[in-house]
Design goal:
two-stranded antiparallel ribbon, globular, 3-stranded antiparallel sheet, mainly alpha, 62% helix, 764 residues, single chain
Length: 764
Amino acid sequence: MALKYMDLVEVDLGKLAMAVSDWKNAVDKLKTAAGNARRGMRAKSDKARWAGANATVTRGFVTKTTKEIVDLHTEAASIYQVLNDAHTELVSLQTQIKTAVQTDATNLGVRVEDIGDGKVRCYFQHIRGDTDERTQDQLDAKQELESRINRLLAHATEIDASVARALRKSHGSDARNAGHSSYENLDEVQAERAAELAKLGPEMSDKQYMELNSIMRFNAKDADFSTDFYKSLGGPKDTLEFYGRMSLDGTIGDDKRRLALSRQLQRNMGVALASATDPDNKSHLPANWATDFRKLGTQQLQLYPGGSNAPYGYQVLGGILRYGNYDARFINPIAEHIVQLHRENPDRFMGNKPTVPGSDLDWGYNPSGKSGAGYDPLSSVLEGLGHSPEAAKKFFTDEPTVYKEDGTVDKNGTLGYDYFDALTDKDFEWAPDSLVHPGSDEAKHARAMGPDALGHALAAAVTGDAWDADPPELHRDEDTAEIMRKVIERYNVASEEGPPPEVMKDSLAKMGASYIDDLNYSIMDFGGSGDALERDALFENSSDGSMRTSFDEQKARNFMMLVAGDEDGYKSLTSAQQLYMASGLAAFETDEDRGVAFAQNAAKVHGILDESRSHGIREEFKDPEEAQQVLQEQNGEWRKSLVSGGVTVAATAGAAILLGPAAGVVAATAVPLVMESAGSVVSTAYGNHTLEYLKDHEYTNDPQALQAVQDVEKIGERAATQPVLNFAQNTGMSNKEATDLINEIEQSYLAGKTVISNNEKVSS
């Protein structure tokens, strides 16, 4: 029976704590009693020189009594361990739900209402005279709160059910016999139940399937649970056969409920496998699981007797690998093996794709439906790297290892190519991971799945966080910066390798926004003047504590010209630039000279970005008037919500600022900020007054404003100018000093535009 939210809020867990204490005392006393029984009457009975029928009966009685005392101790210990774990977890959940209901809901002006089945809904109360209009931020916050409370309730319900099940099995049905199931912790209980359900395979009912997913959802990251669960499936081959049957069961036909359940299982199994294969965890699977997976990768699995289109092991494993943060020691050898197999024969794994009738195009080993149907393991393992940032970084930087067909190391083999260079080569042949008909219109995009996954893997490698992390954080170092350098050298308007695939552009925008500080640093090197201008001192304090990297001035602007030429890329980079610029000016309010130097360079970067978008629109719309109208309409609207709707300031220096809805296609991107000093907190360095100033002076996109705007430069100029005016005001500049500064900013902004317009002339 599902818990109501008030059940969890109001339950007196102090009583459970007392029960835990009582059971602990019982365990201690029974341990003493069991020891006494073994050393006392049992030992004496065994040594006694009895004879006859009475001796046999007496010795048997003593032995049985001793066993029962030992069994009572085992049962009591099991009950204590389960109750103790449950109490610890429930206390945490109760604290979280009290905060959500009593604090967060109140602050948001939201009511929480039980709707049955262990779920709540959150809604804004009507206040007399109120228009009931809510901002998107408020609506998003309400939905997040509702989802959070429902997750907490689901977790508490799962714990309650697991404890009840464990107590029944520990006690058994015989009041006179204490020897039954015993558990060392609650994880063991949950893993046992998950194994029972998994053995049913596709025969699981929807209710049982939901129970399995619920158990795994809340325990997948627990190494004790995940290791026990995977061991219960058997071995690597049994694991692949189980997941393969479940994914096919979930994706065949048009059962949306079953598909949703299989998607949950895919994510849960991926997260659990990552936990179970991390050798740094106390509990983990033996190393042979990794080698066996590689061996099975090129073998076909008969999921059903006599079935056709038997999948290769890597096709099935790929579906699991798409989720979870994997240790490089596990996933990288698999990724290397797959890349090497693909290079030898790009269509190797495509030959067994089934021919499906009608619209059943998601049938396969990737129920999520993202980046392919699941027949191309290369796309799958790249998605896995996209969720495993440390592994992705090592994949693109470590010396490669050559593997044989069976996945064993070829000690005498040589590779002859670099993974980054190979995968970003314009002639790299990506597999068409789709079940669409080869001659259909949709088939044109079938080979886009791989480049999309590659973009995700590179984004994880250069930012140090999963490509879709929410909230994201920056974990950059020398290796991540070196990969970013290679990205910039490969993807820019002057690259001989040509432009990136369209599906990679969102990832490039995310990477650019996450390195906006290094792009600014690179631009401040006109004619090699960076060292003379002491730019290292100007850019030394970053919110993630990383050191600056120069990507070369020309290559940096060529990269920005490519990314900002696209609408969504422009949104991401200019949002990041405006926030980065404002943070620097707030940090340098006590150092006017450095603040001015920083502002001039930042204005130049703004000019580069704005002219890059202008160039992009001129390419998209040959009619000058049509292009100008698009510039005004597209750029005005998103800027209007830049500060009011899209920014969150993190509380510590380690987690950078986030771009939200204003960033367009990149929903959540971590942007580094300039700090007042090493170790400063973001809220101090960025300055609440800066946020307020930008909000008060934001660009309004009403009809009158649009009529007043003659060209896109007016919009870009405001973005470059407003933080500078705030800086002038806060540093106490006179009107003349502020005027002179704005003139300098104008020249810097125009200089940025000029270098891009010169690029455009050369390219045309």
